[in-house]
Amino acid sequence: MDASSITEELVAALVADQFPRWRGLPVRRVEPGGNDNRTFRLGDALSARLPSAEGYVAAVEKEQRYLPRITPSLPVAIPEPVGLGSPGRGYPWPWSVNRWMPGDDLLSGTPVDRRALATDLAAVLVALRAADATDGPAAGAHSFYRGASPGHYDAETRRLLVELRGAVASEVLDEAERVWDAALTSTWEREPVWFHGDIAHGNLLVDDGRLTAVIDFGTSGVGDPACDLVMAWTFFDGDDRRIFVDGIDLDAGTWARARGWALWKALLIARERGIHDSGGLPIVQRVLADPIAE
User: Fold this and answer.
1) Residue 74: predicted pLDDT
2) Which of 42, 111, 172, 274 has the fewest CB atoms lying closer than 10 Å?
3) What domain range is 12 assigned to?
């Protein structure tokens, strides 16, 4: 299905067919609406979330089943499913209705107390690790292998490094390969724990400079939490980075794997934006510049 066909008119029709009590509520597209799902505000208190491709469908049932279990363990709000929609009107997959979550994400430019955010986010991730993981979904295809070893992306990462040859100094490539190799030398030796899978600027909501909610648990699961730590390179810096790292309280091996996840993502962004663009290669260099823990 072409994601562009997921329109306000389609959502309004699906809601009218399947949730008559909400028929007539205004439907407004949320921008940016995300890549994996298209999100629409439904009235003032609800949102509708529709997968944009078949690969994201598994997240619907997962969030419906597990988010209510995780919620009591966390110090901030997370999505609250209130309805499970079915295929219809030419739309082929299940979809969700959730409570609307107020706040601005970190992409909005809203001023943020970075030290407070570092403290708050670390506390959320520690609490998430402590949540009951019994029968939780083991990391795998549904989480795009977040929560598993970053080695799942070994071939892709090494191809991306090859693409940099001739564009960057050989010592940069050597350091990137060292960082990646280090990420593959350890594993999570403890019991599997909950991870979010996509802790990123667009999935953290803030109000009055403080973290109030974490959204989009579509790549969540149970496994290795290293994938949740990439904000240490992509957002935090200096004192706020140290606050975040200290608050997370995990071993050097986990941070090495986290750095590998950050490098993989940075390489993808560099390829997408162009390695000579201001948004490309500097992201890779940022990951390489700070080991955090070795």
Assistant:
1) 98
2) 111
3) 3-101
